[in-house]
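Can you please make up a protein's amino acid sequence together with its fold in token form to help me picture the idea?
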Amino acid sequence: MTCILFVDDEPKVLESLRRSLRAYRRDWTMAFCEGAEQALQTLSSEPFDVIVSDLQMPGMDGAELLTRVRDLYPDMVRIVLSRHSEQEKILSAVGPAHQYLSKPCNPDFLYKTVARACSLNKRMNNPQLKSLVSQMDSLPSLPDIYLEIVEELRSAESSVDRVGTLISRDISMTAKVLQLVNSSFFGLPAHVNDAHHAAALLGLNTLKPLVLTASIFRQLEESRVSQAFLEKILSHSLAVAGVAKQLVKAEELDRDTIDNTFIAGALHDVGKIVLADNFGRDYTVLCHKAKAQQTPIVELEIEKFGASHADVGGYLLSLWGLPQDILEAVAFHHDPANSVDEQFTPLSAVHIANVFNEQQSTAPELDSTAEYLLDQTYLAKIGLSCRVETWQSIAEECAEPV
């Protein structure tokens, strides 16, 4: 059972939520609190997995409440449920909230949002690591891109097209913008083509305060990630994204799946950035050890941290509300047979593209080549083992210089 705490200062709103969510009592244990103080008292006496809070409340508002919850109960999923008229207030909640939903919220949509946010909990066996990931509200960005985007947004002649281009060149910025654009709070279309499209949908009027005031992007200097490490992650991830996109096209899947595959490929190693950001030199040493011993990095990660970079990345993006097929592609890209897939999906494409990219690399910098073998059990499960040679040819074509 998932335990959820709903917080609002209006009794009628709470009663409406209570009535509309009765159908989910088999899956959820729910409590309803009038205001932040009552919520904190309830949290001190019993554990919850998720908190869903209004923003505009007297005394302690929703942003302050979620900040307190983040500090006191870091592994809780934190969701804002507020009105569009309170868009200015959302700036204060961008840090402590994982997701942002707008009132009124369809009960089924709320249920699916919570389910997606909690879906990858089981793969995070280390409570300490789970808490660290849950507290993360941003990831370090490449310094040149960070400075360029700040300068662009401060310019009187700033262009959302140029801002979108810059964001698409940085994994951390891409992940954060996709978190925002996939929320229902801004009332944007459900499907997003890529980071450039996400920036265009948000627009300069939203991006400027988010970047310049709310600081949704973070400078690399504030983290323990080296620039060289981040650049290697970026280069590898974009290469995988490009190949994965071509594989999905070859399988003649729909436009939305093609777009989500590219995003999943670009973000598939975001968990490595999270681990490097939290553990610094310890994680760098682990990567060198994997290469020296020809040991899969995921094995060493699980041994040391209780979870792999794939688990960590999938968990973070599930908290941030990205689409399910992207989450699964990130979380299972090293062990797709453990997924529920029975047909070709973005996960299939990212797994295959990742393997081929590493096999083509003459001197892998981040991991051992020993782990980069196609999951034959998975390919047999989806009935496409016969397609490997075709996919290999596509990957080789993508690797050829233009």
User: Anything to note?
Assistant: Residues 2-118 form a domain with the Rossmann fold fold (CATH 3.40.50.2300).
